[in-house]
Amino acid sequence: MKHKLPLKIKSMQVLLWRYFALFTVLIIAVVSIVCYGVLTSSATIQARDRVISVGSGLTYFANGATSDFEGVISNEMNRYAITEGMDAFIVGLNGAAFISTTELPDDWSGIFEELKSTVDGWTADRAVVYSAQSNLNYVSCIVFNGRQCYLLVRYPMTVVLNSVRSMQLYIVIIALVAILISFVISYMLAKRISRPISELSQTAKRMAKGDYSVQFESAEFEEIAQLSESLNYAKDEIKKSDDFQKELLSNVSHDLRTPLTMIKAYASMVMEISGNDPQKRNKHLQVIIDESDRLTGLVNDILNASKVSAGLGELNKKVFNLTEFIYGIMNKFGYLQETAGYKFYTDIDSNLYTLADEEKIYQVIYNLVSNAVNYTGEDKCVYVSLKDMPESRRIRFAVRDTGKGIPEEERKHIWDRYYRSKDAHARPVKGTGLGLNIVKIILQSHAFDFGVKPAEGGGSVFYVDFPEVSSTPDGE
Ligand code: ADP
To answer: Can you tell me which atom of ligand 1 is nearest the CA of 423?
Structure first.
């Protein structure tokens, strides 16, 4: 079944690109606007400083001078006119020019009227800066050749403004190019960040189709690397479970069919042949019983497997007599002593109590003893002990077999789900690799210590440390 993504969901790459691009455009726009503004105002301020410096310099020269200095003053005024691009005039109060660096402009009367109204009457040593008709003007009240005059310096701002305009144009062009570059870089960055995620998604799709050979790879970013690691772990677990299901299905169908065929065959034999011969009948009935036991074991494993995958649920802890509990379980194994020649040796301290989930601990002890039975040596001996360890307030349960033991490198794997040793044991054991995993989950949920050690003289010792508690309050 294909899942459609909701329409609201957007592509991460597009979003990232959009945000990166927006961010850079904003930065570039702000920087350009600031540059644009600063350029205009600093050009104006500079022009003003210039006109004041030239104007005050000329005022210093001309103020109080006599006509003898006319030549010098005129020279100085011309020098500024050439180097600074300014015009300078010394005019009387009626508007007649005494010295000027250029011919009087056509609209001189208008210019002079404006000058007069700005200065507001001749006042000794007064100077004013004002702008009019794209000119920056400096006017000072001076006495030249014994007469009250005005010194006017005119700075045509068009020159300054033109160079500012061309610089502003450069700024706009640079900003546009920068925005274009930022779009490309943002696109590449967004692609680079989102690419590993879409790769993971492609791999996940392949895995969903049942290809477990895929490998989630991506080490460029730490978070993605962690995600791939988790996905690889999940994939391995799914693969294990899938393999297990397939194996279980083929095993189960094969294993169920064999005992069922046997049961049917021997039941028919009892009915038709051995019914009246008690010895033969019992032998045949025993086969039926053995095969039924095998069936029960198989069904139990399948049930346990589903229980483990569904989680083990809440613990139902209570205080109980561990000594009697272990005896109870060992009695259940008693039939093996009679029917299959197993020998159980027990060394159990009396009257020990613990606090645990009795039903689940039953499964733990049962699985450990079953394994010892399954994997013990030719002598078919199993040793079970329950020992009080008062100094640590613990009770150690241990079960030892005489089998070939578990190689060190395998010891940490045997607790994994579906793990089964490849080694041949004394007797071929039909297991599922789930028993010890169930033991581990139960004991970990109790926070009990447990483990396996090699036994002296071969075989293994599996142990569990139970907390020791005093007997129930009513002294049961
Ligand atoms: P199963 O017994 O169904 O295969 P378990 O989870 O109980 O699964 O055990 C996992 C593996 O650990 C077994 O396949 C076996 O190789 C190894 N094992 C368990 N108990 C013993 C033991 N007492 N001696 C030797 N090997 C053992």
So the answer is: 16
Strand order in the sheet with 394-401: 343-348, 381-389, 394-401, 460-467, 449-454
- The CB of 436 under 6 Å from ligand 1? The reply is yes
CA 420 to ligand 1 center in whole angstroms: 6
User: Within 13 Å of residue 324, how many CA atoms lie on the same side as its CB?
Assistant: 8
Which whole-number Å values give the CA distances from 79 to 65, 84, 101, 277, 414, in the listed order? 18, 8, 9, 146, 102
Pocket of ligand 1 contains residue 421 by CB under 6 Å: yes
Ligand 1, atom 24, residue with closest C-alpha = 375
Is the confidence at residue 404, as pLDDT, over 50?
Answer: yes
Sequence length of the chain is 476
- Closest C-alpha residue for ligand 1 atom 3: 431
Q: Which of 111, 160, 176, 159 is nearest to 137 (CA)?
A: 111
Ligand 1 geometric centre to CA of 419 (Å): 8
Instruction: Name the residue of 251, 304, 371 whose CB sits within 8 Å of the most ligand 1 atoms, as the mutation to test its pocket.
Output: 371
Q: What is the DSSP string of 425-465?
A: -SS-----S-HHHHHHHHHHHHT-EEEEEEPTTSSEEEEEE
Rounded to the nearest whole angstrom, what is the distance from the C-alpha of residue 421 to the centroid of ligand 1?
7
Measured distance CA(280)–CA(220) in Å, rounded: 73
- CA-derived radius of gyration, the chain: 51
d(CA 119, CA 126): 8
Tens digits of residue pLDDT in 113-171: 999 889 888 998 899 999 888 889 999 999 998 999 999 999 988 877 888 888 888 88
Q: Which of 414, 415, 439 to mutate to test the pocket of ligand 1 (most atoms within 8 A of CB)?
A: 414
Q: Which residue segments constitute the domains of the chain, with CATH numbers given?
A: 15-162 (3.30.450.20), 222-308 (1.10.287.130), 314-467 (3.30.565.10)
Most confident region among 101-105, 160-164, 195-199 by mean pLDDT: 101-105
pTM: 0.47
Q: Is 414 in the pocket of ligand 1 (CB under 6 A)?
A: yes
Q: How far is CA 331 from each of CA 79, 191, 380, rounded to the nearest angstrom?
A: 126, 68, 17
- CA nearest 115: which of 103, 105, 130? 130
How far does the centroid of ligand 1 lie from the alpha carbon of residue 5, in Å?
46
